[in-house]
Structures are given as C-alpha cells and as structure tokens.
Design a protein that fits this description.
The two termini are 32 Å apart. The chain folds into two domains: 282 residues, Spore Coat Polysaccharide Biosynthesis Protein SpsA, Chain A (Alpha-Beta Complex), CATH 3.90.550; 130 residues, no CATH class. The chain is built from 19 helices and ten strands. The protein is 55% helix and 11% strand. The strands form two sheets. An eight-stranded mixed beta sheet has the order 3-2-1-4-7-5-8-10, sandwiched between helices. A two-stranded parallel ribbon has the order 6-9. Helix 12 crosses helix 17. The chain is of the alpha/beta class. It is globular. Bound molecules: guanosine-5'-triphosphate and magnesium ion (MG). Guanosine-5'-triphosphate binds next to strand 1, strand 2 and helix 5.
C-alpha cells in the first residue's frame, strides 16, 4: 500500500471544504501557460451544467517553479462566469491548489491523482472529473460530457473519445488500445487519454487497491485507472469530446519514459488479472455519450528518421533479450528490419516506406506479455527492449498514413486491433500451457 497522502495541508483543505458533490481534479507540472484556460473551462462547466451540485476544483501540482499554482487561483475572478454565462452561480466554487506529496519517494502524474482521489473520497463527492493541464481544446461542455454519464447515466467511469491527429497518441494507438480491446474485450479507444469521469464508488475502490507501483505514481496511472475500472466490474462508457489539442510531443524524442511506465503497468496488470481476460472472446463497443463533433486536430510533426535510428540502435542493445524472449522467427524478422533501418534510416523518403507489419508487432507484444508472466521481476527490462520496436512500429504507421486523412489513418489502427484479436486464441493457448 502506498503511504497515505493526507498531509496536514490536504487535511486542512478537506476540513475547510467539508463536503462536495462534484470535483474537477487537475494534475500539473510546469503548466502555467496553459492551465488558466483549463481552469476557466472547468469553472464555467461546473456552473453551467451542474448548478445544483456543490463544486470544488483541486489542482495537485508538483511544486512547479513557473507559478502554475498561482495561475489556478488568480486566473479570472470567480464573477467572470456570471458575465460570460449570464447566470448567477447558486454555489460558490472553491478553487484549491496544493503541492501533492510523493508516494514512497516517487512523484508524478499518478501521485498527483492519488491526492485528488483521497480528497474526493474525503469530501464524499458523487463525481470526479480529471483533466490534463496542457489542454487547449477543452471547453465547459467537457465537464458535462465526462460527469454527465456518472451523475445522470449510472456509469462509474467515462473514458474520453476524441479526434486526435493521426500522429498523436502513438502509445494508445499501437499498444494500450489494441491490447485492452483484445484482452478485456472492450473497445475503449482512449484508455490513457488523460481526461476521465469517475463515480465516488470507483474512487473509493481505487484507493482501496493494493497494487500501486512507482510506475503508477508516474504515467502508469491512466492505464491503471482504466484497467482497474474494467476488472473491478464497473460500468464503463466513453464521451465524445471533439478534438484533443495539447502540448505536442514527438514520439521519438519525448515518449520513451512514458512508454516504459505505461507498458510496464499494462503488463503487470495483465499478468495479475489473467482470470479476467483468458475467457474473453472478441470485443464489443462501449457506449459513447455526447453529440458527434467534427473538428480537425492540429497537425503534429513526427521525425521518422529519428524513430528508425532509435530502432536500429535499440536492436544493438537488446538483440540478446529479443532472441531469448521472443519466438525465433519474430526475433529474426525484427533483427532483419533493424539492419535495414540501420542502412536506410538517414533518408526521409526511405524512412517513409519502412514497414513493420501488424502481425509482427502483435507477435512481439504477445511474446513480451508471456515473458512478463514468466518473470515478473524482468518486466522493466522487457519494456526497455520493446521500446525500440515501438519506435519502429510508429515509423511504419507514420509512413503508411503519410497521405491519409485522420479518418483513413484510423482504419490502420482498427486493422491492427483486429490483428491483436485474431492472434489472441494462440496467446491464450500458450498462456494456459505455461509456454
Ligand atoms: N503533478 C504532476 N503532474 C504531471 C507530472 N507530469 C505530468 N503531469 C501532468 O499530467 C498531464 C499529462 O501530461 P502530458 O505531459 O501532457 O502527457 P501527454 O503525453 O499529453 O499524455 P496524454 O495524457 O496521453 O495526453 C498534464 O496535466 C501534466 O501537467 C508530474 O510530474 N506531476
Ligand atoms: Mg498532454
């Protein structure tokens, strides 16, 4: 169990607030330039859509040196809502910013959210909405879309559904979406989107779990929440939020540590919850709430040359582990592609024609999952070894989607998800055989 997060400051805030019906929680780390917009949107959404609920907004910050917390408190005076919405709020909105405590010496997005969960539970909220602090495209209606299913629809967990640029969300597209869908049978398109709605029951259940790890304190938190909601038997839905526009990240440059934290957490959960997925066949849609929105997300540049260089370098570093843990033909195919990447990677045109097929990626992920079960202590090393293959898989998808619109690129993600489902019976057979 993680150390308790009810520090004196948190306790003080809980005592002052007493109770609340709905909470918006925002984790942050150096987001002073963007969090003001998120706070204003959340504030307006609470007033406009939930006038009869007692609201509170909590920012759990990492102690950002750029004044993120100050922006949360000082952005627009509370009466600005009256002037833009032409309504007088029935309930005063309390805005709180605090520095969350690390958990067992580890800070990060997950540690921030744990403080938010603890406060939500102590204030006995009916609904908790969490949103990222780097969002540009959030509006007041996001609060309604995420909390509405909880407060009005009887759901416990709302996952986001947004249009993202074809090169955004690469960990989701290549790993968490197809794997969550194939294992647990639920087509949750954005299992780690970052913006969620939760019932008070789910929050209490999350706090009572005893499978928190250092990766969950960081970016493992999102897949941990989603998988815990699924395996806990909670009612899950999605909400159509429109476009997701946020601080851009290039997968080759920025996403390595996040990939490792998300993947290691996903593997640990899959091993621990095998009984929840071994008997699941196929997959089904998850209800989606909200009106369909047609909005184009901003383009996101991706450096395929760099991705392929990381793949080629990674093959050198991880060849032994690939050979030891992956099926022979899978390791051979990857090493062959890595040799190709090493010779061709400098050229952007050639990089665009690089392909790592769906089936090869699926086989690699499933072999890694089987190896994780065999040796849970080796999960971090396995995840490190998978990262270069992920870079290559992203380069492959980027090249294949080069001339495609967002919708068409989506068919590639669906094709890959079907490949994960098609290969699942073999995964299950090997799992049961202990192979
Ligand atoms: N408190 C806290 N928040 C963090 C930390 N690192 C990231 N965050 C917050 O977590 C949220 C998501 O972080 P991003 O860096 O935007 O991650 P992303 O790549 O956009 O990931 P997605 O959630 O998939 O969109 C943002 O609100 C960050 O401010 C941290 O160390 N501490
Ligand atoms: Mg972001």
């Amino acid at each position: 169990m993680p150390a308790p997060v009810l520090t004196p400051v948190v306790r003080e805030q809980i005592a002052r607030l007493g109770r609340a019906d709905i909470m918006v929680g925002i984790p942050s780390y150096k987001n002073a330039s963007t969090i003001g917009h998120v706070v204003r949107a959340a504030h307006a959404g609470l007033v406009q859509y939930f006038p009869d609920h007692r609201p509170v907004l909590v920012n759990a910050d990492a102690g950002s040196p750029d004044g993120t917390g100050r922006v949360v408190i000082e952005t627009e005076p509370p009466d600005y809502v009256e002037s833009i919405l032409l309504v007088r709020p029935a309930n005063k909105l309390d805005r709180v910013t605090l520095t969350y405590p690390e958990i067992d010496g580890v800070g990060g997005k997950g540690a921030a959210l744990r403080t938010i969960f603890a406060m939500a539970a102590a204030l006995d909220v009916e609904a908790l909405v969490v949103v990222d602090s780097d969002l540009r495209s959030i509006g007041p209606e996001w609060i309604e879309l995420l909390a509405g299913p909880i407060l009005k629809g009887g759901y416990d967990f709302t996952a986001p559904l947004y249009s993202r640029h074809k090169h955004d969300g690469t960990i989701t597209n290549t790993f968490t979406y197809p794997l969550t869908r194939a294992l647990y049978g639920l087509r949750i398109r954005q299992p780690i989107g970052g913006d969620f709605g939760m019932s008070g029951d789910l929050v209490r259940s999350l706090l009572a779990r005893n499978d928190w790890t250092p990766d969950v304190s960081r970016f493992g938190i999102d897949i941990w929440m989603t998988t815990s909601a699924i395996t806990g038997g909670f009612a899950v839905c999605q909400a159509r939020l429109g476009a997701k526009v946020h601080d851009p990240k290039d997968p080759g440059a920025d996403l390595g540590p996040m990939f490792r934290q998300v993947v290691a957490t996903t593997l640990r959960l899959a091993v621990a919850h095998a009984d929840d997925w071994l008997d699941v066949h196929g997959s089904h849609d998850v209800p989606a709430y909200g009106f369909e929105r047609l909005a184009d997300p901003l383009p996101l540049p991706v450096d395929s040359v760099r991705l392929l260089r990381s793949f080629a370098d990674g093959a050198g570093a991880h060849a032994d582990l690939w050979r030891a843990k992956l099926a022979g033909p899978t390791a051979d195919a990857l090493l062959g592609l890595a040799r190709l990447a090493a010779t061709d990677a400098g050229d952007a045109t050639v990089a665009n024609s690089f392909r790592l097929p769906d089936e090869l990626w699926t086989a690699t992920v499933y072999d890694v999952l089987l190896a994780a079960r065999e040796d849970p202590a080796g999960i971090d090393a396995l995840t490190d070894a998978l990262a270069p293959v992920y870079f290559a898989r992203v380069a492959s998808l980027v090249g294949e989607a080069h001339d495609m619109e967002t919708d068409e690129a989506e068919t590639l993600v669906e094709r890959q998800a079907r490949a994960f489902e098609t290969a699942k019976p073999d995964l299950v057979a090997r799992w049961r055989d202990g192979r």
